[in-house]
Design a protein that fits this description.
CATH class of the domain at 2-249: Alpha Beta
CATH superfamily of the domain at 2-249: Aldolase class I
CATH topology of the domain at 2-249: TIM Barrel
Strand order of the largest sheet: 7-8-6-5-4-3-2-1-9-10-11
Strand content: 5-15%
Number of helices: 11
Helix content: 25-40%
Length: 388
């Protein structure tokens, strides 16, 4: 109850910020490179081989984000600890006043980083766990010895007192091991969450979807998590579940990313989330966009003024859903796991729908999936706003 009361002022602030389009949170990809080779990774290196942002360029972008009013900053990759200048970047971000969350696989965590986080604690650290043991974990990462390095990493993070969450992108490799994964986290006193959303690479590459879980299995996993914990907290519309937090980790969470539906969004809005309204994504080249999944349109924060960038993003996310779109008028749309970003990756158009997530939403809500046409065979509709 105390946690819910504590969240009320934050949620009220977010609602007001969304109405005024105030950027409160930013997901910042400081590198796309990684030391693991996860088979379903959504990061595509081909579209941008580099050179990636320098230390000074990252600081320049952080200055811009601070002036814009960003409070919650999440550093992601790739693997963020692979940057030799991570310490300098992290300390600069904290000095600017950001509440810094770190996304990592923890396999490159070391004693020096533990000392850093002991003296300068992050707001939150989210670490991906791809299996409860080496065999399952390394089936995903394809790197022998990576599970041992992961275990060492989370041990160091716990020893330095970092607020830590374990999370699993649920795939065909792990769908039969949910109970073991939850037990692994519980044995260490850690929060644990699963995400059954598996999207194509951001350049449209379809390899990750090969490892998706069938829609009916998604519903079964939700039920299984409910049985494991007795309590379930949905963290993504029809897509994710989180175990109850230990008391020392309870409290307001960072502002949700594009998987979190905003209550004020109407069924006529194309984008029902906070993408481009309270949040943005910045890639490893310094390009800002509304969403990490669908990065088009994007605009250079190093070459354009912030007000111009934010206005252009706003033109895209504030357009309405066309009345003749397949999802227009759907009574499930407010709780649907599909979104314009996923629809564009799946069909080539944000105005159509992703059949997979439509099926997931139907099954999770106790309905049968529907028969979908081949949307890619339809005549393309002109895109609205600044991407036209």
């Amino acid at each position: 109850m105390a946690t819910e009361v504590a969240r009320l002022p934050v949620e009220a602030h977010i609602r007001g910020a969304r109405a005024r389009r105030v950027p409160l949170n930013c997901l910042f990809e400081i590198t796309p490179t990684c030391n693991l080779r996860c088979q379903f990774c959504y990061v595509a290196l081909d579209p941008y081989k580099g050179p990636y942002l320098s230390t000074d360029q990252i600081k320049e972008i952080l200055d811009t984000l601070e002036r814009a009013g960003v409070l919650w900053l999440t550093l992601t990759g790739g693997e963020i600890f692979s940057r030799r200048d991570f310490r300098e970047i992290y300390l600069y971000a904290r000095a600017k006043g950001f509440l810094v969350t770190l996304f990592s696989n923890a396999t490159m965590m070391n004693e020096k980083l533990a000392e850093l986080f002991t003296e300068h604690p992050p707001f939150l650290v989210e670490v991906s766990i791809y299996g409860p043991n080496a065999e399952i974990y390394e089936q995903t990462t394809q790197i022998p010895g990576s599970f041992a390095r992961f275990e060492r990493g989370i041990t160091l993070l716990q020893q330095c007192g970092a607020p830590l969450v374990l999370k699993t992108p649920m795939s065909v490799f792990t769908q039969e091991h949910l109970a073991e994964l939850a037990a692994y986290a519980k044995a260490r006193g850690l929060r644990y969450k699963v995400d059954t959303a598996m999207d194509p690479r951001h350049d449209g590459g379809a390899q990750p979807v090969v490892y998706r879980i069938a829609p009916r299995r998604v519903k079964q996993l939700h039920d299984e998590m409910d049985r494991i914990n007795g309590k379930i907290e949905l963290t993504s519309e029809g897509a994710s579940a989180m175990t109850e937090a230990p008391q020392h980790l309870a409290g307001p969470s960072p502002v949700g990313d594009c998987s979190a539906t905003v209550a004020e969004a109407t069924s006529e809005d194309l984008y029902r989330c906070g993408a481009g309204r309270t949040g943005l994504f910045v890639d490893a080249l310094g390009n800002a966009s509304h969403c990490v999944i669908d990065r088009d349109p994007s605009f250079s924060l190093l070459e354009m003024e912030w007000d111009d960038v934010w206005a252009r993003i706003g033109e895209w996310v504030t357009q309405p859903l066309p009345k003749d779109a397949p999802c227009s008028g759907c009574t499930l749309r407010k709780k649907c796991a599909s979104c314009p970003a996923r629809s564009r990756l799946a069909t080539g158009s944000p105005y159509l729908k992703d059949p997979y997530y439509c099926d997931v939403t139907h099954v999770v809500n106790g309905l049968e999936p529907v028969v979908h046409p081949d949307y890619r065979m339809m005549a393309p509709r002109a895109l609205g706003a600044c991407a036209s």
